[in-house]
Records
---
Amino acid sequence: MKRVGGRVVWSLPEVTGAIWRRFEDVRAVWVEAEVQNLRRRGGQVYFTLVDEHQIDASMNALVFERLAHPPGDGSLVQAYGRVEFWVQRSQVRMRVERIEPAGEGLLLARIAELRERLRAEGLLDPARRRPLPILPRRIGLVTSAEGAAREDFLRNLWARFPGADVVLVDVLVQGDAAPQAIVRALRALDLASGVDVIVVARGGGSLEDLMAFNSEPVARAIAGASTPIVAAIGHERDVTIADEVADLRVSTPTAAAEAVVPSAAELTGALDAAARRMSGVLAAARVSAGHRLAARARALRIALVARGVRADDRQRELGQRLERALALSAGATPARIEERAERLKRGVRAGLERADRRLRHASGVLAVLSPRATVARGYAIVRAADGSVVASAATLEPGDRVAVEMRDATVAARVEQ
Amino acid sequence: MSAADPEPVSFDRALAELDRIVARMEQGDVGLEEAVALFEEGQRHLATCRERLAAAQRRIEELTADDLPAGEEAEAEPF
């Protein structure tokens, strides 16, 4: 500071030094702002913190690079540091010591952190996902009673399967109390009798609105449930943790309705088709049944006739079961099938009668071929003393005793030459 | 799905059995006797499925948090 004429003249260091002293007592604070113009120069990272106003900032590059969630241009952050005055260039700059994501960035960082923890525990493993039942007895629904999700789900559910039985638990789906409410509802439904599948639904919303579905208690309640859980959390941009832990993730409540019940019309059609196909196979099996039955019955009769067992018994039992099956087939299927079944029944009866005729014929042939029938026609059987049949004269010696068996009696004889 | 439920998936099982029986019957090497036996078994499963469908009644029970059994607080620690 010097006097030149009548004027006091300051040197620049005197000015900047005076300003610098004003900044001496400024303490470190947290500020929330957006990061812009991020660049690295030397050992420092420089950027501008922008809100309605802006302030230049810098941070040690080594510290910055070790951040768990390093911000980029446009990131909303909370930064902690002192605002300092740099005398050389008369710059005001915040020297940032800590910087963390804020707003959406903070939420995303928390979600990423939770996702990693759950992944490390294996809770996001696709192999953990359980299949949904084809037709649940009751369907648990966790959603807000006022939300559009409820209407969308129920309307589509009942359109698809009119007999669907629903237990709805009305919960808050956003706000601080939401996770707790959702967890309680999930637990109650998981234990409820007859509830075979649970749907957690809400319409779309901002990331902040959806945070209940990114909360750890909800994620763990879903992972820990023994009932399969479908997550239908309407959103297009991000998948919530609840979606990732659930057994099935769908993008809308409407899709959830389609996932948890079969179409009643399709199911009825499939059952009718199964009934028709079974009747059809029965009819096809009948086509060759006549001679198969006859062949088997013939074999049976030949094998059993000596023991006096009637092969008809076996055949009759099978015939009766077939009749019962056909009656069932007729009763369980539409009229067209009934008519077919009637024809089939007539056909089977005819087949059985044919088989029976063949059997009678076969037993006639058997009778003809029987040695006794031969004897009846005037032939005789010669037996040796031990009762064996004498088939050749070479086995006999003069003087041997033999028995001659004829139609009416057996006589004793002796070989003379 | 409570552990006490007697038959949580009877419908699914019956439907799967029905599919199996139809597939077996349609393999082509089934004699009349087996066809009749399969048909009889198939009819039982078909009846199970149809009974279940016929018994399904549109119903909704609406509960609020107050209706729920007082649950424990959400676990602070991982299980």
---
Amino acid sequence: MVTAPARAEGATPPARRRRRRPPLAPYLFVAPFLLIFLGFGLYPMAFALQLSFTNWRGAGALEWIGLDNYIYLLTSEDFWGSLANSGVLWLLVIPGQVIVALAIAVALVKARLRNLFIAALVAPFVTPLVAMAQVWIVLFDRDFGAVNLGLRDLGLPAIGWLTDPALAKPTLALLVLWRTTGYAVILLLAGLQSIPSQVYEAARLDGAGAWTQFWRITLPLVMRTVSFYVVIGTLTVFQLFAEPYVVTDGGPFNSTRTAGLYLYDHITNSDLGLGSANSFLLVVMVFALSLASVRILRSREDG
Amino acid sequence: MSTPPKPPARHQLGVVGRYALLVATAALSLAPLAWMLLSAFKPGAEIITDPFRFRVSTMTLDNFRAMLETVPLEIGFRNTAIVVLGKGLLTMLFCPLAGYAFAKYEFPGKRLLFGTVLITLMLPTLVLLVPLLLEMSELGWVNSFPALILPGAIDAFGVFWMRQIVASIPDELLDAGRMDGCGDLRLFRSIVLPVIRPGLAALAVLTFINIYNDFVWPVVVATDPEYQTLQVMLSSLSQTITANQLGADWASVWGQLLAASTVAAVPVFVIFVLLQRHLIKGVMAGSLKG
């Protein structure tokens, strides 16, 4: 069923590739990728799907418990709490970031010293995440952190950036924003550069000002790239692990226990059946969220 | 005399605003990095009393010395180097090869196989965490280099991207090679590889940075310090320091933390500064996925 179209394509005249021998080479070339995918992708996924219906804890026989893991999670405050934490982080990071990154990208298109600005913006993205997480701890410490010492010099009171449950998420979001905005800018810049200049020329002849051009041309045409970034950003935020793991370890009062960290808890507790179920629930939700945001953005593209 | 249209005041304001935005965001991007770098050379006490003053006269390597005495950073570097080499070589060898097959051959099952590449692209890495860890413990691979290297080697994005690049090679070039009696592998080596070299360079830089900075999988599968990568070691650094240095005060721990973070960031910065163009191209190629 799948092979038929491939053959039909190969038989069309424009691709005049003579097939003198059975095509063994392409299979050999693809084989290493396929082996890795089967061995370390498909097989463990299938195993995990099976495990998610058991209460396996890392040893002994598999005991089938039906949907219990899923029901447990879907009725568990911890599970929804971790999702809510990730959701709040998403709200704190993605919408604002997209707007700021778009503004920076638009400013970059015609800027001098463009490569220098790009280098500065991307530097956080290549810096080891763990290193920066450590720096965040030192910067935002309540008693000795540089940020609070700076505030004190201005006569302001100390703020519990990482110890106040209401502030820990924003402080963490700041780290995510700092690290990933440069990446968003580059993607959006690539999107902006793919808009043909003739479109702008035509608009200018019609007397469109800078703002009109932005609203009527730039924004609709860059929406594709925006929705692509939103999907990537959603995946990033809902898989957030290293930042909360190193900076807050989920605290204070579980306020930064993200979906990723909660999943990791199952591993440290050896609740592997439960962990597998959690993985699958997470994928479904992340996919749904990505699809929903693309839908919303794409509908604006048409308008 | 043709006069250019007078630049309206609003336009001038726009230019100023544009550069103000760029300068401000560039500064915000670099500030934490600069602070880390400069503070690492300050005496610990100064970091917590005077975090924003940097004096040449009190600059010191004490933080680096104290950190290296108790933290086996060289083991972390060694392990990361092994993983970067192993995983990196697999990626650099087999991504272009698979990309070549998908771009320039017609063969039964091609669509299905390429479909798996696309699916793997969209699979969140976090889902595989538990199942992969189980597989590793079945294989007896927990705390081993195969576990750190093999899963995730030959990444789907690399295959997808290399396919795009190889597809731009004209068929005539390959046909000519075939006429000269080149075999499939020979064609790849002497025609495809040289042509796609710029793309390969970008893939190499991106791959290096990704593997070097990777954290989630190593922290799960390498619990034994003997197999911990640099990033994993870095993540538990303050515990290591306080456990090994009795009576070390916070200021000193922080100084060492910043020193270690700086050391860990140096290889990426060197690569970044030298090969920035390739990297940007690589990240931009990511937008082709959309």
